Amino acid sequence: MKKILLVFMLLFMLSGCAPEEKSSPQKTAQQPVQRVDILALGDFMLHHPQLRAAEKNGGYDFKPIFRYLTPYIQEADIAMINLETTLTDGSKGYTTYPVFSSPKEAARDFKDVGFDIISTANNHSYDKVMDGVESTYHYLKEAGLDVMGTQIEDTPPLIKEVNGIKLGFICYTYGLNGFDNLLKNSDKPFAVSIFSEEKVENDIRYLKEKGVDAIICYIHWGEEYRKEPTDLQRAQARFLAERGVALILGSHPHVPQGVDNVVTKDGKTFVAYSMGNFVSNQRREYMNRRDVETGQMVRASIIKDDKGTRVESFEPLALYVDKYTAGGLHFEVIPVVYALTGEMPVERIDNIRGRLEEAEREHEKRIDPNLVIQMKKERNEHEEK
After folding, report:
1. Domain 34-376 maps to which CATH number in 3.40.50.2300, 3.60.21.10, 3.40.50.300, 3.90.70.10?
2. Which of 149, 176, 238, 262 would give a disulfide with 269, using CB separation of 3.0 to 4.6 Å?
3. Phi, psi (5° rounding) for residue 48?
4. Which residues contact 373 (CB under 8 A, 6 or more apart)?
């Protein structure tokens, strides 16, 4: 009996000395990286020679302008451009500088080449007063495009969720070429988004309440034909940055300006002060300056992961407007570096190589390379790391 008790006691003691099995710590599943690729362009203007060039079968076709850019527009998740004219049905004819009204076919062609959002707040938004605002908005929406900057009802800023990232879009102009009071005293003073600190704060507050991950701002500002941003542009950029805007895309000066990174306590805001003309009939031959023929295409990526949402890449690229006559008048916008390297074969490269090289040199002088983060070529690079 004693032996049996001793055996049980030994077994009990040994069981107490046995090492405890340690449960392996649970690994927290990492949030997959989500990404939105963005392409932004400057002022789409239409002067009389451009209208003549676009005439086709009793209507208008503006798609040839985008011939060399369509692949880049279509591969972006969000492609945007500033429409600096109004769109009408042509029943009263079309007009250009200083009061613009243009063919409604532009809306169809924007959609066909791959644009998603059209910025419409600029100093020419009210050129045809409320009728022009309403017809422009109508034709863009009818084509299936989102619109920011003008509206026919008092609605909040645009929100789009793309690839799991919720983006808010705000859009402003400094003014309306003297029509400001006419808009203010109309029955729809909200029809064009005019910049004011109060309006910006209200718009951003709304977007944050809706839980957006990032805010993008298109803004028409600065001084025409000025190569450097004004002090007011810089101050307004900081104002927007301090309120949480991630990406600021500027237009109006008709020439490209530099870029900036505005650092705040909450992060970093990327600024393109002026993307310049996307397309126009402004030429060096009669304006005595080269930069009116050039613009910028901004390619950027916004990512969302365990660390939050941020701009991962920001790359301004030079554009050149090629105007030529060969069996008719033509306007084509050329992505300069892609043409020079052969990534985008350009039919007239030998005719315009000198001007492309000149445009690229000017672009390199203007853009601080330390402020540029090149876009990753592969969308899944994050997952491979």
Report:
1. 3.60.21.10
2. 262
3. -55, -45
4. 311, 312, 313, 314, 315
d(CA 288, CA 280): 15
Task: Please check whether residue 101 is in contact with residue 133, taking contact to mean a CB–CB distance below 8 angstroms.
Answer: no
Residue 380 has what pLDDT? 44
Percent of the chain with pLDDT strictly greater than 90: 88
d(CA 362, CA 43): 19
Cis peptide before 335 (omega within 30 of 0): no
End-to-end CA distance of the chain: 67
Quick one: CA dihedral 117, 123, 124, 130, positive or negative?
positive
Which of 202-211, 323-332, 367-376 shows the lowest per-residue confidence on average (mean pLDDT)? 367-376
- Please, what is the average pLDDT of the chain? 92
The 3-state secondary structure of the chain reads CHHHHHHHHHHHHHHHHCCCCCCCCCCCCCCCCEEEEEEEEEEECCCHHHHHHHEECCEECCHHHHCCCHHHHHHCCEEEEEECCCEECCCCCCECCCCCEEECHHHHHHHHHCCCEEECCCCCCCCCHHHHHHHHHHHHHHCCCEEECECCCCCCCEEEEECCEEEEEEEEECCCCCCHHHHHCCCCCCCECECCHHHHHHHHHHHHHCCCCEEEEEEECCCCCCCCCCHHHHHHHHHHHHCCEEEEEEECCCCECCEEEEEECCEEEEEECCEEEEECCCCHHHHCCCHHHEEEEEEEEEEEECCEEEEEEEEEEEEEEEEEECCCEEEEEEEHHHHHHCCCCCCCHHHHHHHHHHHHHHHHHHCCHHHCECCCCCCCHHHHC
Domain limits, the chain: 34-376
* 13 pLDDT higher than 50: no
Over 80: is that where the pLDDT of 290 sits? Answer: yes
What sign does the dihedral 101-277-66-143 (CA atoms) show? negative
Both tokens of residue 228?
């450097």
Rounded to the nearest 10°, the torsion over CA 270, 273, 276, 278 is: 30
* Confidence (pLDDT) at 28: 58
